[in-house]
Amino acid sequence: MTPRSRWGTVALGLLVLATAFPFYWAIVSSFTPEARLFERPSLLPTALVLDHYRALFTERDFWVPIRNSLVVAGATTAICVTIGGLCAYALARLRFRGKAPLLGLILAVSVFPQISVVSPLYLLLRRLHLINTYPGLILPYLTFAMPLTVWLLVGFFRQLPAELEEAAMVDGASRLRALREVILPLALPGLAATAILTFVYSWNEFLFALSFTLGPERQTVPVAIALFRGQYQVPWGQILAAAIVATAPVAVLVLAFQRRIVQGLTAGAVKG
Amino acid sequence: MASVRLAGVEKTYPNGHVAARGIELEIADGEFMVLVGPSGCGKSTALRMIAGLETPTAGRVLIGERDVTALPPQERDIAMVFQSYALYPHMTVRENLSFGLRMRGVARPVIGERVENAARALGLEAVLERKPGQLSGGQRQRVALGRAMVRDPKVFLFDEPLSNLDAKLRVETRAELARLHRRLKATIVYVTHDQEEALTLGGRVAVMRDGNVEQVAPPMEVYRRPASVFVAGFVGSPAMNLLPGDVRPDGTWTGPGGLVLPLAGPRGGADVPARMTLGVRPHDVAIILPGAGDATARVDVVEPRGSELLVHLRLGADGEGGELRVVAPPEQAIAVDTAVGVRLDRDRLHWFDEPTGRRLE
Question: Is B13 on the interface with A (CB under 8 A)?
Fold first, then answer.
């Protein structure tokens, strides 16, 4: 090993440590009994209990926010990838007037600070009787997630050689059939990467979820966790346990599709 | 199989680029037609309009007796081999070959049989279950060819299919294509920028320039009787010498570097233009002793090419009269920077009108 790469390894190790430590600490704390949480901290857990997790699912019925988050994030992702995918394909491939302005407009939608649109959106959703409903969260999420999806996928579709579709069409496939049989299988890494990003975004979203839900029956995970704190005490153990529960599916998802995400985000960077 | 006709086909892209200015071209049933020209001459656009991948802004495209101008590619019954091959990377060779048949709803056993036949003909049996990424360049090229062959289409379209192969493989595949054409008796439209490829493959060659067809003729006629200055300069290697000059009242033509030629016979008549360009191939000029022949020149560069020497001369005693390329026999001793005489083969001169550039007979 050359000195330089040794220092690189050390730096990398420190970076990983700094990134991973909060997670480690949260995991350890979530298994530590409440009484011991504020004693002298120790890096290695001294007593492991499942109290917080038990309390999470018995006292608080944490299944409800999980289900809410799954429905909202899942629906947002499904709609985003389907409609956004078709939209991106059209923008990447078809020739029509006003394409560049349209792409700009789509991007413009996502540059508004979220906080600036909360009030008008609230009024709009109340008028539509969508406050405290799933569509009341999915629709606003789409406005933010869709531009991201479209932009990512336009870039991805553009990298696929147009000759492939032309070959498919000369071979007798209609444009939609060519899309389904040739383009979609090739775009799968890009679609997977986009889907995961959209899902993570919707899963973690807090401001809209807090503003547009009223009670625990429609609250998503981040909102539920934030509302754990009572008037007199903060149940840190349960909050950390909930954070672990909320992070786990996303982490699993990302780890499972890690290769695909990297492929999707860097596709075309190197010809191959 | 079917004939193909382009009738007054024009194409202007939305950005204002004109790729075709009224192309008239008839390709007979079973003919091997090569469209050749420099990049940007509209040959690929013409091919893509036959395929249906581009829509002409004016004019008609006919395949057989059928007007297909408005039909999408999938309804034209054509097959195309792309420059990049455009193999479907996620499918095996077998799936690639059968894709077109599956899209057309051909029965499964028939598909299997036709794929096997094509694979056997192209030597692809061993790689049928592989994906394109695992194939060599030559194999990919053959898969692309096979994908077109299994379909038994009305017309084969080739878009520079050999340009991604190395020189040796290109010559082999060229011969293979010629055999394929003889065996299938298929109508083929073949696009290339390589004039040598065009001459060796084409039953007829259409030389294109700037969205127009300059000349359509069998290869040897394009070479021997180029219809314009452009064709003359484009076809043949090394390129033909093109020398501008004036016609004198005494019926002689005066070119650069003191080159004077009598305009014999009918060219001495009243309809001779004031300015004419002389075309003479490097093979039709002989290097002789200084002072003899049609003009004097200085030797600039001598390039040995194995079977012959390519000599770059500068016309005129002081070498100020412009370049003249000459092919000389390899055993001829030619010293650089000496004066020589040149003699032009009078029977092999080409005359072109200036400024139109059209051939004068």
Answer: no
